[in-house]
Design brief:
Oligomer: single chain
CATH class of the largest domain: Alpha Beta
Largest sheet: 7 strands, mixed
Order of helices and strands: HEEEHEEEEHHEHEHEHEHEHEHEHE
Number of helices: 11
Bound molecules: NADP nicotinamide-adenine-dinucleotide phosphate
Shape: globular
CATH architecture of the largest domain: Alpha-Beta Complex
Number of strands: 15
């Protein structure tokens, strides 16, 4: 073995031991990834070379082309998820990927090498800010054919959250009226389109700068929350979906029809307030679901849902991307470009 190769192997073993990546993985091929070694500000996110993961029997190794950035990524970076028992430092965060299947475990039946896919990775595992990531069959679907990998990466977590809130929880129906607080953000921009595709009338709030986006998405009644209180202009909706801080909830109880529902993805509505008014309420915690992703693939291929990507950063600039998501004023989605679009 040449000196250079010995040095490289030693570096990988030392790195793996220091980082907590398994030592025997040091013999595996390497990949670039944004690694979290300590909790803190965006500056703790560092691009490094680490061992490439190897899929277990029930796992799929995906060559990542693009990954998206969600508010939960910043919570993970700050260590907020560890308080819920998820402390597994060091780790690679990122829960949304689009890419190409590189390799499948022995028990994987739905996917094969070369398939173009997208996935919502378990919060327990993450791994999206990397050139390769592990996904399970229950977290992934074939990528919609009519959009590129960058747009596809924007979909899984945010659109699944919108689906699980509006379709699985509130069970919205044709002809109903839905108010979406925060219609221009990652979840909100999908929620507006899913509600429209379901045949609902959609009212949505955003700042002045995003009124054009609300109209572009098909919102029937856009509201500029910087100039207008929603409770002054909205009465008797069937469903409220809250995608912004929970301080929109107190004024929301009074504008829902008896028998209607408030769903919130940012904090649970108050059951006593809902009971008093004869409305239902629920907090929603999204989770990966391949069936939902397949439904979303159908809506996207039918041009009923189009991901809105407002900013793209190279993988090496994940810290800048997280600074943007922490503003809480992102328009649509932010994506990390990991590799060039493959030639089809
Ligand atoms: N429970 C779950 O499973 C789950 C899943 C995903 C996300 N979440 C949470 O849901 C929230 C939204 O996620 P996201 O990915 O959509 O975030 P995001 O992409 O950062 O979107 C934030 C959006 O909220 C709008 N906004 C901010 N303040 C507002 C206000 N007072 N009224 C109306 N709109 C307002 C912003 O529009 P302007 O710039 O125009 O103000 C922006 O477009 C985050 O807190 C996230 O952690 C929860």
């Amino acid at each position: 073995m040449s000196n250079m190769r010995i040095l490289r192997a030693l570096t990988v073993i030392v790195f793996a031991a220091r980082a907590g990546f398994s030592a025997h993985a040091a013999t595996e091929p390497l990949m670039k990834a944004v690694v979290l070694r300590e909790y803190g500000g965006p500056e703790v996110l560092k691009l490094e070379e680490v061992p490439r993961p190897e899929p277990k029997d029930d796992e799929v190794l995906v060559r990542v082309i693009a990954a998206s950035v969600n508010p939960v990524d910043a919570y993970a970076r700050q260590g907020m998820l560890s308080k819920r028992g998820l402390d597994k430092r060091p780790e690679i965060i990122g829960y949304d990927i689009a890419g190409v299947v590189e390799k499948t475990g022995a028990r994987v039946t739905k996917f094969k090498a070369g398939d173009a896919v997208y996935a919502y990775l378990s919060i327990m595992r993450g791994g999206g800010y990397a050139q390769f990531a592990i996904a399970k069959e229950g977290e992934m679907s074939l990528k919609p054919k009519n959009i590129d990998f960058e747009k596809a990466a924007a979909v899984p977590l945010a659109a699944t959250t919108a689906w699980q809130a509006l379709i699985d929880t509130a069970k919205i129906d044709k002809g109903q009226t839905v108010l979406i607080h925060g219609g221009s953000g990652g979840v909100g921009s999908f929620a507006v389109q899913i509600a429209k595709a379901q045949g609902a009338k959609v009212i949505a709030t955003a700042s002045s700068a995003n009124q054009d986006l609300l109209k572009q998405l098909g919102v029937d009644q856009p509201i500029d929350y910087t100039t207008t209180k929603f409770q002054d202009v909205v009465k008797y909706v069937d469903v409220v979906l809250n995608c912004v801080r929970a301080d929109t909830l107190p004024a929301s109880y009074g504008i829902v029809k008896k028998g209607g529902m408030i769903v919130s993805i940012t904090g649970d509505p108050e059951p006593a307030e809902c009971d008093k008014r004869g409305i239902r309420c629920s907090g929603v915690m999204a989770h990966p679901d391949a069936n939902v992703l397949e439904e979303l693939t159908r809506l996207i291929e039918a041009n009923k849902v189009t991901p809105i990507v407002s900013q793209t950063f190279p993988l090496a600039e994940a810290a800048r991307a997280q600074q943007q998501i922490e503003t809480r004023h992102t328009r649509g989605k932010i994506v990390l470009r990991v590799a060039p679009e493959p030639k089809s």
